[in-house]
């Protein structure tokens, strides 16, 4: 299995404060990688760096090397919009646009120049199907997306991310605002999606990491303490800090 | 931060130690009854055998509760899963002590005179059970390794006992039933040593996360 994202010696500062310290990681394709660690450990910051979402924050300085399919994502000729088309993102709180379900999904493809209705119809249907929400919304595509339940909204946001045909999906605590049933639907969905996509997911729910992910990375105080197969991390972690965190001795 | 869970693990440890002590007691009493031809002592081993089974159930349900409530990982997960496996071996040790005691009651006071080697074999097997429980209590992998090696000693005893029994039968085949009883006892002791070996392997697994047998 090859790695889709390779990170070497990455550091990130918010002004004077160093939030990420020398992270090295290789993210295997078509698998689910979970980032775990206590609040403020840098995992979300690191996730957002992978599709350059941190560029928007003033005072951020990043050093090191991040490669997506071999290409330096900080190279001058990189089109950030294209990068984000390849590496999509789903946030903690479902954030549908205040428009119809159809337009939510068609939004991305339209900005990338697709205008033909039949083509858009197809993308909308496929994306909603892949996000396992088609059956629930197919009869009300013109209704406002804000009328959906929280769990449906999150699946809609996943469908929206899929609509531009990404390779990688970054998910920042995608189920933390959802009830257990919606959570398990999203988990099922994510497991199906890894057939096609590479998924990187920040989660505070340790059991979720165990249930869903193939690989787990444990972050602490901006450092990547341990990265390995989820099964190994949760049965025999190599670093005492990992052991102490996952067994609930701090954090 | 996780005082309650730590307390529950402490209780689990305590119960396993108790069950280990019960097994040691059962096998030691069965061995004493055997060497002394003491049928009443053998009877008491039989009457107490249910206790070990009950203890196994208790520990089992405690482990299930911990798995359900705490969803343990890492060292905690290894400890609890090792506990679940170990108590099965302990329960088997208890059963085999009971089997030996049962044979002693059939022997109607007859001792193992002339076959003292079975007593020695029993001492060795009891030593293994004691050490394996100690290894668990102290999380002592070196002691667990020693137990695993000691299994060869008991196996060698079994071979010697077997040839002694064959000699016994060739000398006097009118005593065939007694000879077979002794062979059964030796076999039970050999199995007890195997279970002690398993316990030692689980101790190593719960500490290191690797299982000897599979790794080799």
Describe this structure as you would to a colleague.
The complex is a heterodimer of chains A (251) and B (216). Chain A is α/β, with parallel strands linked by helices. Helix content of chain A is 36%, strand content 27%. Chain A has helices spanning 43-49, 80-86, 101-111, 117-130, 134-137, 150-162, 180-193, 206-212, 230-235, 240-246; strands at residues 3-14, 17-28, 32-36, 60-68, 71-72, 87-90, 168-172, 198-202, 215-220, 223-229. Chain A has a 6-stranded mixed beta sheet, sandwiched between helices. Chain A has a 4-stranded antiparallel beta sheet with strand order 2-1-4-5, with no helix packed on it. In chain A, helix 4 (117-130) crosses helix 6 and helix 6 (150-162) packs parallel to helix 7 (180-193). Chain A starts with a strand and ends in a 5-residue tail after the last helix. The mean pLDDT of chain A is 94. In chain B, 40% of the residues are buried. The chains are: A alpha/beta (251), B mainly alpha (216). The interface between A and B is medium-sized, with 14 and 14 residues.
Averaged pLDDT of chain B = 92
Number of domains of chain B: 1
Tell me the CATH architecture of chain B.
Answer: Up-down Bundle
Number of H/I helices of chain A: 10
Name the helix and strand elements of chain A from N-terminus to C-terminus, one letter apiece: EEEHEEHEHHHHEHEHEEHH
Number of strands of chain B: 0
What is the oligomer described by this structure?
heterodimer
Task: Pick out the low-confidence regions of chain B.
Answer: none
Instruction: Please tally the β strands of chain A and state the result.
Output: 10
The first-to-last residue Cα distance of chain B is: 38 Å
| Biggest beta sheet summary of chain A | 6 strands, mixed
Unreliable parts of chain A: none
Largest interface here, residues on each chain? A-B, 14 and 14 residues
DSSP summary: helix tally of chain B: 7
Query: Roughly what percent helix of chain B?
Result: over 70%
CATH superfamily of chain B: Phosphate transport system protein phou homolog 2, domain 2
The Rg value of chain B, from CA coordinates, equals 19 Å
